[in-house]
């Protein structure tokens, strides 16, 4: 924990991201005593005064269970300054109001974040400044590389935190413990023993009023390009010598550099679809194309699937299926590793039709790990039946954004996406986007509440 006072400067402080995720995450850190001396400064274009901002901060802290002198001091002393974050003069005024080296959190749309960074280059930032920004980082590989170059004019790479809250979920981080803390799993996780891996985030939620962002992104960019590729890199990476940022991010980056669409054929090995009207848990959903704010001509997908290859010594030849969909009747959020059949089943044993599987849940709130194996049943000892050995694990002591902010405030970027990784994530899906833009892959439909496209 740092001992010098620093300022968390939130740009976009009056927005939904700040109220729903950032402030509760900070409150969670304060509740656990995991924040050093801190000043909080909010800024946005909305005309707020200090009292309104302080009330929002206090409400978020209370909901997160943050009480005591540290939380009270942050909530009572925080300030709100209205500003145009693309204005060089306004940014200088904000930086001058910071107490100690600023941690600047861009809770802003990507296009505004880029304009703010250009203005910061002109204004200059103090030594020790750290930057944290949300996805998507760029709009393709070229723009992500250009944005990396822009940020390099402000601070060194290790002071840039490209936030992916999926990588900070305890359910995802649990993959590290399962892989590297168990002798029975790690030696079997390779092409010799694994038939295939699925990384799935299917959810029952529909658009939920997010057309302003989602209709320009779709499931491929919103989920696979960012979150699921990061999860895959944790599943696939070689054992790092330590869990510090250099070792972990080096291991993940090597995975992404080796990743491409299976057989380099995005027409055959991808699918896209969007939901039409249907019902989920008694709730009627309209067709995606009829949702408020949606432009049907964009052909934005709400379901995306891609099969990838990872051409490393360990994983060459194993298909990785990444999939995410909205408004699905059977939510499924997991990493599923399917093992190859037993090398030889002795004559006389009956059954053994189901492969062994390791399932690791990656839900936002809690997870489950399950191992599906074949055993002799209680009746005929020569009859093999599948069983599942399961254990639940909780959501962790901090919400994902609490973990994100912990890394940012401590200057520990192990959970953030490195610049080269951000570029490679776009490179991996670019052939898919080209094929979809050319309509080489049909846009299928599925009713809301169904399992997805047939």
Structural summary, described in words:
With 454 residues, the protein is of the alpha/beta class. The chain folds into two domains: 6-134, NAD(P)-binding Rossmann-like Domain (Rossmann fold); 167-447, 2-Layer Sandwich (Dihydrodipicolinate Reductase, domain 2). The chain has helices at residues 16-31, 50-63, 69-77, 88-96, 110-123, 141-152, 170-180, 211-214, 218-236, 245-257, 400-410, 419-437; strands at 6-11, 38-44, 79-82, 102-106, 130-133, 160-162, 194-202, 259-261, 270-276, 278-280, 283-285, 303-310, 320-325, 332-339, 350-351, 357-361, 367-376, 383-393, 443-447. Strands 7, 8, 9, 12, 13, 14, 15, 16, 17, 18 and 19 form an eleven-stranded mixed sheet that branches. A six-stranded parallel sheet has the order 3-2-1-4-5-6. The model has no long low-confidence stretch (mean pLDDT 92).
């Amino acid at each position: 924990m740092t001992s010098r006072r620093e300022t968390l400067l939130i740009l976009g402080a009056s927005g939904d991201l700040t109220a729903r995720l950032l402030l509760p995450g900070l409150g969670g850190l304060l509740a656990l005593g995991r924040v050093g001396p801190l000043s909080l400064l909010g800024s946005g274009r909305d005309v707020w005064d200090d009292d309104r901002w302080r009330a929002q901060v206090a409400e978020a802290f209370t909901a997160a269970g943050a009480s005591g002198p540290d939380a009270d001091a942050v909530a009572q002393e925080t300030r709100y300054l209205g500003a145009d974050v693309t204005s060089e003069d306004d940014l200088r005024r904000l930086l001058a109001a910071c107490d100690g080296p600023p941690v600047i959190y861009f809770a802003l749309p990507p296009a505004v974040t880029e304009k703010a960074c250009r203005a910061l280059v002109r204004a200059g930032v103090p030594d020790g400044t750290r930057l944290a920004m949300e996805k998507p980082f760029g709009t393709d590989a070229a723009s992500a590389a250009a944005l990396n170059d822009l940020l390099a004019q402000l601070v060194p790479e290790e002071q840039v935190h490209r936030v992916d809250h999926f990588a900070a979920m305890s359910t995802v981080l649990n993959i590290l413990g399962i892989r590297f803390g168990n002798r029975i799993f790690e030696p079997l996780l390779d092409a010799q023993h694994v038939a295939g891996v699925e990384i799935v985030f299917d959810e029952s939620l529909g658009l939920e009023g997010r057309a302003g962002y989602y209709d320009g992104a779709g499931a491929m960019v919103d989920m696979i390009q960012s979150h699921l590729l990061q999860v895959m890199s944790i599943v696939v990476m070689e054992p790092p010598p330590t869990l510090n940022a250099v070792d972990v991010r080096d291991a993940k980056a090597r995975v992404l550099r080796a990743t491409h669409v299976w057989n380099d054929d995005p027409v055959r090995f991808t699918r896209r679809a969007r939901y039409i009207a249907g019902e989920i848990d008694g709730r009627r959903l309209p067709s995606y194309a009829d949702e408020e704010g949606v432009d049907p001509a964009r052909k934005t997908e709400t379901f995306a699937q891609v099969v990838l290859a990872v051409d490393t010594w360990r994983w060459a030849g194993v298909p990785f299926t990444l999939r995410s969909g909205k408004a699905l009747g059977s939510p499924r959020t997991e990493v599923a590793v399917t093992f190859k059949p037993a090398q030889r089943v002795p004559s006389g044993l009956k059954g053994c039709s189901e492969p062994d599987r390791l399932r690791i849940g990656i839900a936002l709130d809690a997870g489950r790990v399950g191992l599906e194996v074949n055993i002799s049943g209680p009746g005929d000892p020569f009859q093999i039946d599948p069983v599942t050995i399961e254990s639940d694990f909780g959501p962790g002591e901090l919400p994902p954004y609490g973990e994100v902010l912990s890394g940012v405030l401590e200057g520990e970027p192990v959970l953030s996406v490195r610049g080269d990784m951000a570029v490679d994530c776009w490179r991996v899906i670019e052939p898919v986007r080209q094929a979809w833009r050319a309509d080489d892959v049909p846009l299928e439909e599925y009713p809301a509440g169904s399992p997805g496209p047939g």
